[in-house]
């Protein structure tokens, strides 16, 4: 087992990167009509300002009482629920922004936003804006599972070019050579996904610009990400519940070492490559 110090070093070095990439996989943020520390809906315009600030930092935000976006019916967990919590003292108003997934797991907690204003509306809004500065370092940008969409990217230009030719010169047929080339590319992508086995379940891995994504077979959404590090051959392994390191052993098996933050111990899981 690799030593725990290495895991700590890698995790700390890519802390913000990992958080940003986790947020990037969510398309929407749902803002409630009222936060628990307020007495009425949108009191002091805090909820309205929260929605505005999420949009300012690139999120697609909607109020919980609004119609949900249509594509949430396809992927109902493609959104985060926003919450704002208060921890104010006698002379300071303190707020934090929290994002939760559809399982009510905390995905992100902002730094504490502080205001010394005495008037409630000014104090809450100033503290909220201060808390939202945490999103500046994340540089959020929604990233759909672009590897899964790669076959579409490969075929779309061919289709558009053929259609354009048919409009201009109706006698031009579709090119069998190009169609065969596209089909060959799709087949290569399919074959490149190695199958791994762990605990009688099958998994597969797809390459991404930042490393790899790990999928349970027959499931469209990845459950884990593996982000490249400066240490060659090592990846930051991240799921909703855990973090650790991952690497491929000499037999091509995927080895994952999960860090337990309670006692700094690690547990190992091996995904054996299927021959």
UniProtKB/TrEMBL annotation:
Tree of life domain: Bacteria
Protein name in the entry: Uncharacterized protein
